[in-house]
Amino acid sequence: MSLKDLARRGLRRLMTELAIRMADAQGAVAARTMPVFANQPKHLTIDLPRRIINPENIFIGDNVWLGPGCFIAAVKEYPSASLRHPDKHYDIQTFAPQIHIGHRVTSSGNLVIGAVHRIVVADDVMFAFNVTLLDNLHGFEHPYEPYKYQALQRIAPVEIGRGCWIGQNVVILPAVKVGDMSIIGANSVVTHDIPERSIALGAPARVVKQWDNMAREWRPYPARSVRASLR
């Protein structure tokens, strides 16, 4: 083996070792810079990068694992400083938000939770990538005023039941309760309550199947709803 080959092999080993050490260091940084939440969760992982706003209003259960890119905001006032026009005066909305994330909740990453009132995620919920939960919407009453400067509206609590599976790119809007053990299909927009042990999909999401406890299987929901949801 030539000196050139030995040098290349040595460089590859060095780069591999460096990558391993950097990954270990990132995990240590994530743990040491974890925000102080309203409670003291055990065995909590929220990978970097992350953005947590007002963690003192956020309650998190034990053994929670949230992948990178999470943005969890308990919003106490709106518009926030970053959204205010420097030359205009605004009436500031103030809130007392609460976010509750149960035990053993997991997210693949890019989880967005924005609360001005209350969002509750029960135990053992599984989020795929790019899921958004909102208990409020931006105002749009004035089409000549930029929407980010208008008051928040449709403020109402959101609840995700125990053991649910929320698919990739799902958006869950204010005043929605997803029942225990339900599944929301990828790319769905949930605008109304979903019963427990149901499968829902679409924009807006509609129930297409429900669990039949007697038959011990998933059964199609009424045919008309199924056809509408699959169009």
Describe this entry's structure for a reader.
- The chain is an alpha/beta fold.
- The chain has two domains: 1-33; 36-230, Hexapeptide repeat proteins (UDP N-Acetylglucosamine Acyltransferase, domain 1, 3 Solenoid).
- 16% of the residues lie in helices and 30% in strands.
- The chain has two helices and 22 strands.
- β20 and β21 (205-212) form a beta hairpin.
- It is globular, with a radius of gyration of 22 Å.
Topology diagram in text:
Layout: H1 3-32, E1 45-46, E2 50-53, E3 58-60, E4 65-66, E5 70-74, E6 77-78, E7 93-94, E8 98-101, E9 106-107, E10 112-115, E11 118-121, E12 126-127, E13 132-134, E14 158-160, E15 165-166, E16 171-172, E17 177-178, E18 183-184, E19 189-190, E20 198-202, E21 205-212, E22 217-220, H2 223-230
Parallel strand pairs: 1-4, 2-5, 3-8, 4-9, 5-10, 8-11, 9-12, 10-13, 11-14, 12-15, 13-16, 14-17, 15-18, 16-19, 18-20
Antiparallel strand pairs: 6-7, 20-21, 21-22
